[in-house]
Amino acid sequence: MDHRLAFHNVVPHHHKYHRKTDLARFEFTYKAEVTSVYRLTEHENLYRIRILDNEDRKHFSFRPGQFVMLEIPGVGESPFSISSSPSNHEDIELCIRTVGNLTGVLSRAQRGMRIGIRGPFGTSFPMELMHGGNILLIAGGLGLVPLRSPIAHVQEHRSMFDQVFIVYGTKEPSQLLFKFQYEMWKKDDISLDIIVEKPDPSWTGPAGMITKVLEGIINSRDDAFIEKTHAIVCGPPAMFKSVCSMLAERGVPMQKMFVNLERRMHCGMGKCCRCNVGSTYICLSGPVFDYWTVMNLKEAI
Amino acid sequence: MLFRVFEKNELKSLFGLLAGKNTVVGPVQTDSDRNGKPIYAFDRVTDFGRLRIDYTTTKLPAKRFFLPYREEMASFKMSGKDWTKTVNYHMDRPCVLFGLHACDINALNKLDKVLMGSVYPMPSYAAKRLNLFIIGIGCDPQPFCFCRSMAADTVHHGFDLFITDLGEKYFVEILSAEAYEVIKDLRTAAPGEEDHEQYLRTAAERGKKFTARVDTTDLTKILDIEFQAPVWKEWGDKCLGCGTCANVCPTCYCYGVEERVDMSLQRASKTKTLYSCNLLDFAEVAGGHNFRSERSTRLKYRYYHKHRGFVEAYEESLCVGCGRCGEACLAGITVPEVISSVRGEE
Questions:
Q1: Residue contact A5–B18, C-beta within 8 A
Q2: Which chain B residues in 138-177 lie under 8 Å from chain A, judged by CB atoms?
Q3: I need a labelling partner for A97 at 20 to 30 A (CA). Which of A139, B45, B200, B277 fits?
Q4: How confident is the model at residue B202 (pLDDT cuts 50, 70, 90)?
Q5: Is the pLDDT of residue B1 over 80?
Q6: Sign of the C-alpha dihedral, residues B271, B277, B279, B282?
Q7: Structure pTM?
Q8: What pLDDT, on the 0 to 100 scale, is given for residue B312?
Q9: Intra-chain end-to-end CA distance of chain A, in Å
Q10: Which positions ≥6 away from A21 have C-beta within 8 Å?
């Protein structure tokens, strides 16, 4: 007698909202539209993106530091840190440098362009852990993009934090991002220090490496201040390494500093291996790590 | 689990019972090498006579039947500025893998952990994996097999039937209820005392045949300590960065995703293609920065993932010791040699 083997149908058909363990979650894309494109610098735009389905938009929630995969059908898909406040359930904002194929197409986007969003993915900055203390928010270059989300959290929960500092360094004044927000940050009693490496004639602020400003801040504070301080450091590896070692030297423990890593990703879900450092999936175990963990990842820096 | 024995000519009946209504994939001889030795491959088999369950190994694993080289993940239909996305689950009919060696079944079990067991299970893999009926078969260890060192020379789960040749008859381990239903239609007998003894003798004989070895004692620590060792540079200089090792590996699952638009601009597809961490652009990001631009760092990363990272995550290595990568490597790089040099054993 011939045996016809039982057929296991894995195609999900019954529910709309997906847990991380559901097969339907893997390729689930929120259809979204670009509602505005705000030009920040010559190479960077701020894209405001709105998930079209009303229910989905209400349910979409993320934490500061998490990322989404942005897909343009037929062009490709790439990971981007979410750069807006987690409490805004209407739009999410992505600040994107025009550097490759997908971002090139995106830079020509018109309002209303339909894109796909998957996520949110990855770990986040443990903001609640930092409540009650001081916080140093340090960004180098494009690092301000993922940092803007924790900054928004701090602004919305200002009473939960004691002293708050933003230290931001870029190469040139023309590369400064989110200039329209600087005054608002200051009004929320957040100290803001900006330093550029190569000043132009119009620049009146300090010039040099970011550690120069940071040094002034931490060295003029007492041990009691350092004891209740957390730091979030976003930027290129060379930058966060020098910043974190300076903080470590001043007495900030490595597990109280958080950094964010960026790698090539093709899935965001711990499958494609493209983001692996050593053999840690940046998409699952990261992109946010404490500094101790990053120092223990082989080749991370 | 249930054990039975059956006469050798009953194997053809087993094939017949399954091949009538299902796809059967098994080892066949496709060619001979220049020394006249047969070259085997996994292929669809409809005729029992073509099946070569006495095969030594195959150049390529059976991966293409559950993790194909290229696969469409989703397609898009575009109209104006709008589009719709359709996910392709690749729902195939059940497939019988007839004659997998223990190493290859262990490889599937390891893939299950990453692709189905953790968060975000992969539907295209799950669709195929859950529809596999696996018949394992005992093997004759080859000079390049180091599966015993990787604890992958025997397999405890992940199959339906496992057949061992006792010389006069076959000894079969029945693991699934579905397999039991099939075996019921075969002329089998309960194994006697002498069958058990013969089974143990066969296993002991086979154990003696393993020649290649990898010392995995404290390997995770050694890999950490020797991360900057100069041997990596030496192997990196030999490596061609061609990715053949990943292609022939039964457990390599990494991939790249590409999207294409068709000429009418009305359809697009999202395709995944198996990749290799030894290829130059594996970790290159937009803007051109490459996190692993050296061949040696890419080769090291591959060993690190297989023998260190996977152990950290799942308490076992991602390598099953099938030896295919060493046999296929154009530069003659083999796992036992690399590991032994990292251990400083030369």
A1: yes
A2: none
A3: B277
A4: very high
A5: no
A6: positive
A7: 0.92
A8: 87
A9: 63
A10: B119, B120, B121
Answer yes or no: do A77 and B270 touch at CB < 8 A: yes
Distances from the Cα of A91 to the Cα of A52, A61, A66, A268, B36, angstroms: 10, 11, 15, 21, 67
HEC profile of B218-259: CHHHHHHHCCCCCHHHHHHHHCCCCCHHHHHCCCCCCEEEEE
| Protein fold of A127-296 | Rossmann fold (3.40.50)
d(CA B103, CA B101): 6
Q: Under an 8 A CB cutoff, do B22 and A5 touch? A: yes
CATH architecture of A23-121: Beta Barrel (2.40)
CB within 8 Å: B94 and A5: yes
- Residue B225 touches chain A, beta carbons under 8 Å: no
Query: Does the structure show a pLDDT above 70 at A300?
Result: no
Q: What is the CA radius of gyration of chain A?
A: 21
Determine the pLDDT at residue A16: 64
User: Is the predicted pLDDT of residue B275 greater than 80, yes or no?
Assistant: yes
pLDDT value at residue A298? 76
Q: Does B75 contact A at CB distance below 8 Å?
A: no
**Chain B residues closer than 8 Å to A116 by CB:** 85
Residues pairing with B323 in the sheet: none
- Tell whether B237 lies on the interface with A, counting CB pairs under 8 A: no
CB pairs under 8 A between A and B: 182
A237 touches chain B (CB under 8 A): no
Q: Is A299 left (phi over 0), alpha (psi -120 to 50) or beta?
A: left
> What is the Cα–Cα distance from A161 to A182, expressed in whole angstroms?
19
B-proximal residues of A, 68-97, CB under 8 Å: 71-78, 97
**Strand, helix or coil at B14?**
helix
B305 to A276: CB separation less than 8 angstroms, yes or no: yes
Angle at B68 between CA B155 and CA B330, to 5 degrees: 80
pLDDT of B276 strictly over 80:
yes
Enumerate the residues of chain B whose CB falls inside 8 A of the CB of residue A4. 21-22
- A8 contact B CB<8A: yes
According to the model, what pLDDT value does residue A24 have?
83
- Whether chain A has a CB inside 8 Å of the CB on B258: the answer is yes
Locate CATH 3.40.50.80 in chain A.
127-296
User: What secondary structure does DSSP assign to A245-283, as a single string?
Assistant: HHHHHHT--GGGEEEE-----SSSSSSS-TT-BTTB-HH
Q: Please state the φ and ψ torsions of residue B48, each to the nearest 5 degrees.
A: -55, -35
Q: How many CB atoms lie within 10 A of CB B152?
A: 27
CA dist A241 and A112 (Å) reads: 40
Please check whether residue A31 is in contact with residue A106, taking contact to mean a CB–CB distance below 8 angstroms. no
